[in-house]
Description:
Blueprint lengths: L6 H28 L4 H9 L18 H14 L1 H9 L4 H7 L2 H7 L1 H5 L4 E4 L15 E5 L2 E12 L6 E7 L11 E7 L5 E5 L11 E12 L3 E2 L5 H37 L1 E2 L2 E2 L4 H29 L5 H26 L10 H8 L9 H13 L5
Parallel strand pairs: 1-4
Antiparallel strand pairs: 2-3, 3-7, 4-5, 5-8, 6-7, 9-10
Helix pairs in contact: 1-3, 3-4, 3-8, 5-8, 8-9, 8-10, 8-11, 9-10, 10-11, 10-12
Amino acid sequence: MDFQFTKEQQDIRTAARDFAEKEFPEIAGRIDEKEEFPFELWKKACELGLIGCFIPEEYGGAGYGVTEQCCIAEEFFRVDPGCGQCMNSVAVGSEVILMFGSEKQKKTFLPPLARGETIMGIAITEPDAGSDVLSVATTAERRGNEFIITGSKMFITNGSIGNYLVVYCMTSPEKDKASERFSMIIVETDRPGYESNKLRGKLGIRASDTAEVRFTDVKVPTHNLVGEEGKGFPYLMRFFGRTRVMVAATGVGLAQGALERAVGHIKRRRQFGKPLSDFQGNRFKLAEMATLVEAARNLTYKAAADVDRGILDSAVIAMAKWYSAWVAVHVADESLQMHGGYGYMAEYDISRFYRDAKILEIYEGTKEIEKEIIARSFLAKQFT
């Protein structure tokens, strides 16, 4: 078993780190305060091939695997989670098109993402259907060569700035099996009947666009159906198999960044005539935090390597996502505690890390859902 990154992966990591360290600090506080998506930053990241990097070269991307994606995501969140979230999410949902879409859909929708011409998202969550995706009520009725989409979605990333969304909706309500009732359909946001309401006042990742979305008899051609009708649920599970590993990597990055800020602070500050780093309590905290981060990193990259080899172990992916998110929340909390009163001030970016961390335990599957997946996996096994 090789725990070393390849030279290419190291180069990708370095490029992502250099870009983030150069570009993020200047705007991070401002875009968080004003809740503004950083369009100029997005354009620069696209020029360097850091957006939609998993898109194959024939569709304009770099063709990186999940491991390389995780390297970029980790470095972005290490420098600033808010900026990192904006950059990591502008192509979310394109994984569904890449894995299950037609060749025409891939050629139409993927290249503009990599070129920095379009932004997209995926619309799953509804006001009364979050973790329970089999309760989604948004419908798409087939009429001739069109689907008529009606319903609403909540907490949709890029819902008010995206050019198109992959919408998870009910197309076959008559099916006996709930898992066969849903499909994935691409919806361009300039279609009549599409409305979005930007949500403001979030606790964290405030610069990332989040919206409530309404579909009022939105007409979409049937060729916008991704893959087969009625396959939306298994497609969604495959989608989560990739994206939850990415969330795990962002958790590792956020925790690493919080750890580094704690180290820097206690080496600079003094109490009782000596640096805070001389106090055993702080040294023990650092030891625990560093160990947790390294454990989360190893679990995350094991999951990423498995996915790159075509192994989708839902339990390992859930472990990586849940544990890395928990580590991010815990390490950010400990780091802020070590900053004392300074950590409570907005001018110290550890306060943003603290606020941004919590979402990792909520989106792309709550920590309770991840634990349920893990438990089911082990309960299904036969032990002697």
